[in-house]
Design goal:
Elements (H helix, E strand, L loop, with lengths): L7 E4 L2 H5 L2 H9 L8 H9 L3 E6 L5 E9 L5 E9 L8 H15 L4 E6 L4 H10 L3 E6 L17 E7 L3 H7 L26 E5 L4 H7 L1 H20 L2 E7 L4 E6 L4
Parallel strand pairs: 4-5
Antiparallel strand pairs: 1-2, 2-3, 3-4, 5-7, 6-7, 8-10, 9-10
């Protein structure tokens, strides 16, 4: 089953469309996932939240996003973003995030925050490099034990901060951002961070953590064990995750970056 070339990015409407999100969630995150009940999503929309999707002409939903109101009127929490495995070549995740940005700005919301797995390189590339979000916070085993494709490893998370009207976001969204990377990178599994750290530090990460978790669980868990203390120390010393390189398979951390 392949999606058509043209999909409409819009808010989902009514229980009929919202009822299509649980099977999509299971296709994205596995049968062990626990998707939100459609009636709950209807309530989310009613209280000022966002439930958007990528919809074809037949009403099939190929990707969706949930944004929740927070205690701060100018901030939305982005709770879910999932793309059907058959539709991952159409940049639907980025299109939904851009839709979310415009939707929020029209309502006076200028910041979006969300959590994501710190070892998912492709997700990090979208969040940091393509959208211009930053990370300053590491949340160890944030959700506890999880099912589906997340099963088998502690649920460590980064918290992304996306300042929708900031110069950084504008530069990344238009492809005009340019970060200066160190020539050498810290090889995460080969040693400890030095006592004195440089102003900018490139850190290696696995190319595909989910595949590693399925195929070599011990190696995946080794990445979790090594990176948790590393990220905690970097954020504790004032570093910010400012860029991600797919080619290098690295994250760029900069001390006290203005973001």
């Amino acid at each position: 089953m392949n999606p058509p070339a043209s999909l409409s990015i819009r808010e989902l409407s009514g229980l009929g469309e919202l009822a299509l999100t649980p099977p999509l969630a299971r296709a994205v995150w596995g049968e062990g996932d626990q998707p939100e009940d459609p009636s709950l999503l209807l309530a989310v929309q009613h209280i000022g939240g966002l439930v958007a999707g990528a919809v074809d002409g037949d009403g099939q939903i190929w990707a969706y996003l949930i944004g929740l109101p927070t205690k701060d009127a100018d901030t939305q929490h982005s709770h879910r973003l999932g793309v059907h495995p058959s539709a991952r070549k159409q940049h639907l995740g980025e299109k939904l995030k851009r839709f979310q940005r415009e939707w929020c700005l029209e309502r006076g919301i200028n910041q979006v925050r969300w959590t994501f797995d710190p070892l998912l390189l492709i997700n990090a590339h979208l969040n940091i490099h393509r959208l211009g979000a930053v990370v300053r916070t590491f949340l160890p085993n944030y959700y506890g034990e999880m099912g589906g494709i997340n099963a088998g490893a502690p649920s460590d998370r980064f918290e992304a901060e996306w300042h929708l009207e900031g110069e950084r976001a504008a530069a990344h969204l238009t492809g005009k951002a340019s970060e200066v990377w160190p020539e050498d990178a810290f090889q995460t599994l080969q040693g400890d961070l030095p006592d004195i750290l440089p102003e900018a530090l490139a850190v290696s990460v696995p190319a595909d953590f989910y595949s590693l978790l399925r195929e070599d669980t011990e190696m995946a868990l080794a990445w979790r064990r090594r990176t948790g203390p590393l990220f905690s120390r970097l954020f504790g010393e004032g570093y910010v995750l400012t860029d991600v390189s797919l080619v290098r398979q690295q994250y760029l951390f900069e001390r006290a970056a203005e973001c």
